[in-house]
Amino acid sequence: MGKTGEKNMLRAIPPVDDILGSADLAPLRKAHPNFPWTHCVRNVIDEFRTGKYGEVGDDRDTVRSAILRRVLDRVGELRNLGMRRVINGTGVILNTNLGRAVLSPAVRDAVYETMAHYVNLEVDLESGKRSHRGETMIELLRLATEAEAAMVVNNNAAAVHLVVNSFSPPGRVVVSRGELVEIGGSFRLPDILAKAADTVVEVGTTNRTYVEDYATVAKRGDVFLKVHSSNYEIRGFTHTAQITDLVAVAREKQCHVVYDLGSGSFFDFARAGIEGEEQVKDVLKTGVDCVTMSGDKLLGGVQAGIIVGRSIFLEQVRRNPLRRALRVDKITIAAMQALLRTYLFSDAPERDVPILRQSTEDAKTLEVRAQGIIKALSTAVCDKYGIGTVDDVAAVGGGSFACQDVTSVAIAIRCDTENEAVTLAKKMRERPIPILARIKGTEVRLNLRSVMPYEDEDVRTGLQAVLEGS
Asked: Domain of 61?
């Protein structure tokens, strides 16, 4: 739009009261009297003034109609959009963009019970006196990891920050250059450490770091931070300091060793043929002072930062005033309690914890499910798109098992062109229950390893509607 057109459009913008008095807006204003209509209309008009919606015309009626439509759209978006359920057909099980771990029925029930009622969050029911929140959760966590002490904060970045910050002064953290990772959403470990410690000492190089590098710079009270690589793997001419060697040097130099496992695991994934993640209890046996990890990754729970380790070390962390700012609420405690009880008391956690079942389920089972969905589609749709199953790969995700694929099965919808595949995938995302798929060439693929079994009928219904409409 040229300058003249812009000026004409600006002159054509009606007053706020004109839009508010529109007959098209009246039913909504009556139905939702507490909504800030004036503020909403002003925001939309401001967007038009800045040219956010491009050229819309320069006469009063056209501009007025465009503004009114946008107000109605905005209200509709606020009422219906935002975070909602989706079907994950991407093949990434712990998909951070899709909320990571799906919770088990036992965890969901515990969360609902906590939300719907008062709970004894900080009350000892026997004495009637005040107690400490999460005491049972902490005991369950200690048992599950065989740790001396445990603590839970709101996420793993907070856990790392709190641990490092608790030993300042002297406030020195020593970390390998090859482990200064970016943890997603542009959050980088060096930035977190710079806020937590007085001094960050980088040792080694991107691809090779030796235990001697730590020993050379070590001062009494330093924190040696070992970091899980998370989402990537360096291969070739590489070397990394082993955790047992770090512990030995730390004891000699009177330093501390903290291992940020990132995802962490209470389950032996190696039994299912998925190698590369250490169990938390095994890491603790090396003599590290503490381990930090997430609650909503390989553990299969809600967002939380878990800290487990030696009692004397965690007592120092517990005295940090920042701990209060990072503490978890009753919902997190309820979810963690239920999940930890599954690990401790279930005869088969790999059956009862969704992330474990999704990761270890036999591909033949996925093939049967995929065939069942396809058979329930109309013959016309299947013939038109050549719908069938294909061998595919999935990823556990969440920063775990870098560069390792998990065999899987996908439903392939074959299109004539890549643009047609992109359009079809978009229509699938626009369903009442959005279906997120992956595009491979001219195929739209729905990977069954990340689709929950109880969603198969929703997948069939959604596909049938989209493909018939196409």
From this structure: 3-79
